[in-house]
Amino acid sequence: MIPLFHDFRGERVLVFGGGRVGYRKARRFAREAEVVVVAAAFADEFEPLFEDEGDERPPLSPVKARIDPSDVGTWLDRAAPALVVAATDDAALNEAVERAASERGVLVNRTDEHGGRDAGSVVVPATARDGNVVVAVGTGGRSPALSRELRKRIEPELAGAETVAVVTAELREDLKRRGLPAETRRDAVRAVVESDAVWRAETEEGSKKKATEIAERVLGD
Ligand SMILES: C[C@@]1(CC(=O)O)c2cc3[nH]c(cc4nc(cc5[nH]c(cc(n2)[C@H]1CCC(=O)O)[C@@](C)(CC(=O)O)[C@@H]5CCC(=O)O)C(CC(=O)O)=C4CCC(=O)O)c(CCC(=O)O)c3CC(=O)O
Ligand SMILES: NC(=O)C1=CN([C@@H]2O[C@H](COP(=O)(O)OP(=O)(O)OC[C@H]3O[C@@H](n4cnc5c(N)ncnc54)[C@H](O)[C@@H]3O)[C@@H](O)[C@H]2O)C=CC1
């Protein structure tokens, strides 16, 4: 499988199943997408997600319904999601969700299987994140517990990466504006991301100052 980063803003995700697994997937996609969760019953964890916090988060709506596998197509046609998650504990229903999604060319995440390699099937990776810097881990679906463990090991490595991303993004723009050749810009940016001093600076300002010093040194060479 090949990882891609998908921007879910302005899109809808339809989750079938309101248990622990449905909750985990709904919470994840609710960072960006409008999420609709359809289930006969909802786990308690959902409660805070359903509350309108008045922030800019897109809405996450519960729909309490018991679904028959033959009705899944209608639900998909009505919701027109970019991605559908099959997270019920009923394998026949999850199967129907997968089939209806693939008939419509909609991406589908089957949570009760690890072998799904049909067209349009997606696997949700373990994700370590610092701001918009993201590392996704997958094991080809074979060992989610290993994905989780690797995510935990990677998390400390990522601390501070968002600041380095902000600082280097600004630096790149600046170097481009100055019309420097691509190779020179690359050497300067590489030296900055490699620098412990940039990573360790206490503030964004401090990090920026160090980055400028290092970049100017490279440009002067
Ligand atoms: C294929 C996949 C499909 C998908 O969901 O996309 C899938 C499938 C299944 N998971 C199962 C079990 C567990 N899943 C977790 C945890 C996570 N599972 C996630 C992803 C994936 N799980 C996809 C593969 C990703 C990859 O390639 O590695 C993570 C990474 C992301 C997320 O879900 O957010 C998240 C960790 C997030 C984090 O912590 O960072 C734990 C660990 C725990 O709970 O401690 C256990 C118990 C231990 C164990 O069984 O290993 C079962 C058996 C159910 C049963 O037996 O009933 C199936 C079905 C089957 O294997 O058939
Ligand atoms: N991918 C993953 O990370 C993991 C996947 N799993 C798998 O995910 C599935 C779900 O696990 P849990 O959330 O723990 O189960 P759960 O039993 O807590 O929740 C199941 C949900 O499905 C709903 N549901 C079942 N039949 C329905 C119907 N006909 N119409 C509407 N809603 C219906 C229930 O109301 C409930 O909300 C299991 O099959 C399990 O094998 C389990 C652990 C991890």
UniProtKB/TrEMBL annotation:
Molecular-function GO terms, alphabetical:
ferrochelatase activity; precorrin-2 dehydrogenase activity
InterPro entries, per this entry? Met8-like, NAD(P)-bd_dom_sf, Sirohaem_synthase_N
EC number(s) per entry: 1.3.1.76
Chemical reaction(s) catalysed: precorrin-2 + NAD(+) = sirohydrochlorin + NADH + 2 H(+)
A Gene Ontology biological process annotation?
siroheme biosynthetic process
Cite the SUPFAM superfamilies for this sequence: NAD(P)-binding Rossmann-fold domains (SSF51735), Siroheme synthase middle domains-like (SSF75615)
Which pathway is recorded for this entry? Porphyrin-containing compound metabolism; siroheme biosynthesis; sirohydrochlorin from precorrin-2: step 1/1
Keyword annotations from UniProtKB, A to Z:
NAD, Oxidoreductase, Porphyrin biosynthesis
Indicate the segments annotated as coiled coil, or none if absent: none
Record's keyword annotation contains NAD: yes
What protein name applies here? Answer: precorrin-2 dehydrogenase
Q: Which organism is it from?
A: Haladaptatus paucihalophilus DX253
The taxonomy runs: Archaea, Methanobacteriati, Methanobacteriota, Stenosarchaea group, Halobacteria
